Amino acid sequence: MKVTQVALCPTDASTAAGRPALTPELLAATGARYSRSNDGLDAIIDKIDPQNLDKSVDSIFKMIDYGHQSIADMAPVAMFMDGVSMWLAYHIWSLCPLAGGQESSTRYIKLSSENLPDAADIGIPKPLRDEWTSAMKAALDAYETALQFWEGVARENPAVTRIPASLLNDSSEKAQKTVARMRRNYAFDRARYFLPAALKTNVMMVQSARAWVSLCQNLLSHPLPEAQQLGNLIRDELALAAPRLLKHATAKESFQKGIADWRERLYYDAVDSKETDEITDFSQPEDPKPHLEVFLAPFASHYWFERDLAFHDNRYSFIGEHLQNTAVRFGWEAVAFGDIRDLNRHRTGSKWCWLYPQGFYGANDQKGASEALAPLYQTAGEMTKHVYEGLFGSDWTFVYWILLGTQFRFEHTTTADKFIYEAELRTGVGAHYRYAQHLHDVLELWYEKFPATRGLILEGSAEPE
Predict the structure, then answer these.
(1) How many domains does the chain have?
(2) Residue 133's Cα: distance from chain center in Å?
């Protein structure tokens, strides 16, 4: 695992124009002075001693406490995190909903056992390490088999890939490279469900120093060794950009107790479910069962929702205030973890995933897939059962048995305008076929409530890109 803080430098154009360049902490300190002065930026910068930058920073950063954390929001920090597990990547995105960034994509990258961490490094109990390693390699073998199957489907029946005929019939080198990439994407999107969530991935994030401190507090308070290792590495890099905040970037008792309470509730939920509706076959997919609740803003109505979307000609364009002020809670009873990873990265609102496995989803959207891949589903079902059995313990390493096809409950609470944006994005060009279907299903529930918005919401059909 490696974490690298990347500093920003001024562009040549900015330097030529004589624009100031400040460190993250000095930027925050300069911005903070706006609350005490209305003299403007030039007057504030004139007071900065270029020979003693620390003095300028200290004079304002000494005030940072729970009443002044907004100051730390003005210190931007970018970090690149290499070699974290897919599960931990999901976890940090759930803790950093406002971060910008990227994660290595299963659509473009073929993964293998080289991406598998050592069982001891991530805290797998010693008696289970050999079994876990063998299971992960079996999952990767299943992934390889599924990839070959779906590549064959794409090759033998190009129509299922929905690649435009103009590209398929274009003999130019550029067009054929594009076709080959789109065929690979088709296969990768369907084979990915057999990938272990323990595989290493890379994540880049840019967010405020305050958000990095909060992430450190969460990670350093988590019992998983991998989470603590990442927290310490982030803390080390944060020292390069915002050293005055390090005293806050420590494990916190409140987070430790909260994480322990969450794990205990998961245990008791498993115990209660075992007595009532225990799942015995985890190799089968559970019905996603979408749900949607809408909490209307004052004076909101079908008429005003229609007006709010009157000028909405792309997903980034105008949406009116009645939709902006209407709260929405939507989700599904069973979503594959690979799709949850994508849906979890939306910046708005609060997301909730209950790590109690519901079943296993493997791609079966083409005739013959279920029969051809049936042995692989059994392999995946055994690993998903390990996730379930792990709930009855007290540690967290059960998360490393998760496959990207393991299904969990997932829910998102936001406002209607942000819900519409997500639905348009996740059904639009380049969307993954499976989460696109999940959003189509929720949109149908929306249209049942607000039929006048059908056609005004720019619902796509997940065309390949």
Answers:
(1) 1
(2) 26
